[in-house]
């Protein structure tokens, strides 16, 4: 590439990255502020959970009537990255914003990453027509939008950029996407945190043991558990989605039925621990022993909520599942409780999304770089043992290594259907 092309490329993506960063960062900030209000209102008005079926109908009917292909959510972003057939509709932003806020307000169990990523991607794609971007540049701006949304909603710019690259271009990261993703992620995070003053939750790993061989080896069985947990979550979400689609033909009715069952569960258990984001419980997982079944309850309730058609992300619930599973495993694995919660926090996320590099970096941004080796091993092992599962059905995993049983041992091999590199 000559100097003129380099200057043109740099100038273009400085401008586009700045615009996408401002749009995605502002959208995430407004969303997080609104979500905090919805969570606080629900926690102080327990009765509102009884209205979850009504909220579910509003969400379901709105997407059924106006959503069109927006109902595909994050998978639409992946489909368009691979095929570049149709623009991401601008309506995706208000639809997923309102749908997620209503889900949390009335007591559904969901996250926030999916909402931020969809808003970032849909807002970014609107610039395609104004700047007359070619298909390759359009792919890059979609990646930038995802990076901005993820970075700003969690306050992790490096992980946001890497997540977009690793998630959307699995093992095929192209150098042209690096600068736009990183630049947009830092701009979006700055807009959300500095301009809007949105703060993010801090987690503390107060003790990181020495990097001895025995300490590092103990991470392997934990990572295997995290990988299977991520796989369980992904398959459970797809299972419930399939069952609701199979037995309830009218889409708006699916979250109504799901809402009735979720509300009944909350009232019978008399606990709101497993609905909403569950951030207070995640913080507790770093500080004190918790019931062993917390991760399993959150897995079931979140996969059921999303499978029924409610809106929101999967990542924060995955943090909950991983942190509480790590907390439970600390009973048998002789590593500090907070460290076990931390490696579970990112390990289950890695297994469910197939993004071990982004998850490792995210852990270091959130917990400190001292725990990086433990985090990296956990994320890699979880990634390998999660198999071909993913919470995103459209994610291209043709290049992923697999674990196949061979003569009683596990060996690494490539997917037979993959093309030669």
TrEMBL record:
Any idea which UniProt keywords this protein has? Membrane, Transmembrane, Transmembrane helix
Q: Where are the transmembrane segments?
A: 12-34, 46-67, 88-107, 140-165, 177-196, 216-234, 255-275, 295-313, 325-346, 366-385
A cellular-component GO term for this protein: membrane
Q: Which residues form the signal peptide?
A: none
**What coarse category fits the chief subcellular location reported for this protein?**
membrane
How is this protein situated with respect to the membrane?
A: Multi-pass membrane protein
Q: Where in the cell is it found?
A: Membrane
The UniProt entry, under SUPFAM superfamilies, shows: Clc chloride channel
Q: What is this protein called?
A: H+/Cl-antiporter ClcA
What is the scientific name of the source organism? Answer: Algoriphagus chordae
């Amino acid at each position: 590439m000559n100097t003129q092309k380099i200057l043109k490329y740099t100038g273009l993506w400085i401008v586009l990255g700045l615009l996408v960063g401002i749009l995605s960062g502002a959208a995430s900030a407004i969303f997080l502020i609104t979500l905090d209000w919805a969570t606080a209102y629900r926690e102080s008005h327990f009765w509102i959970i009884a209205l979850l079926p009504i909220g579910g109908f509003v969400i379901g009917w709105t997407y059924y009537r106006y959503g069109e292909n927006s109902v595909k959510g994050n998978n639409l972003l992946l489909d368009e990255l691979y095929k570049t057939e149709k623009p991401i509709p601008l309506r995706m932003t208000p639809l997923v914003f309102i749908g997620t806020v209503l889900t949390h307000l009335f007591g559904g169990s969901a996250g926030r990453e999916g909402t931020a990523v969809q808003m970032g991607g849909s807002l970014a794609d609107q610039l395609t027509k104004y700047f007359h971007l070619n298909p390759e540049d359009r792919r890059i701006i979609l990646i930038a939008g995802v990076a901005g949304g993820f970075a700003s909603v969690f306050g992790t710019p490096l992980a946001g950029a890497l997540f977009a690259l690793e998630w959307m271009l699995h093992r095929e990261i192209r150098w042209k996407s690096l600068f736009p993703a990183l630049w947009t992620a830092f701009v979006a995070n700055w807009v959300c945190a500095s301009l809007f003053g949105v703060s993010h939750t801090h987690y503390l790993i107060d003790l990181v043991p020495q990097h001895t061989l025995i300490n590092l080896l103990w991470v392997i069985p934990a990572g295997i558990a995290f990988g299977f947990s991520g796989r369980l979550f992904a398959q459970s979400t797809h299972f419930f989605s399939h069952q609701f689609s199979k037995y309830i033909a009218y889409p708006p009715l699916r979250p109504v039925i799901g809402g009735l069952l979720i509300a009944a569960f909350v009232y019978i258990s008399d606990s709101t621990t497993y609905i909403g984001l569950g951030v207070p419980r995640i913080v507790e997982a770093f500080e004190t022993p918790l019931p062993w079944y917390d991760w399993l309850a959150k897995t079931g309730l979140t996969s059921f909520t999303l499978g029924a058609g409610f809106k929101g992300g999967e990542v924060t619930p995955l943090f909950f599942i991983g942190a509480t599973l790590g907390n439970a495993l600390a009973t048998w694995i002789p590593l500090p409780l907070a460290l076990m919660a931390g490696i579970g926090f990112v390990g289950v996320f890695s297994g469910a999304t197939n993004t071990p590099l982004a998850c490792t970096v995210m852990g270091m941004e959130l917990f400190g770089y001292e725990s990086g080796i433990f985090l990296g091993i956990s994320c890699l092992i979880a990634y390998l043992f999660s198999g071909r599962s993913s919470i995103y059905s459209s994610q291209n995993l043709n290049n992923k290594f697999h674990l196949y049983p061979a003569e009683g041992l596990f060996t690494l091999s490539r997917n037979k259907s993959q093309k030669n590199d």
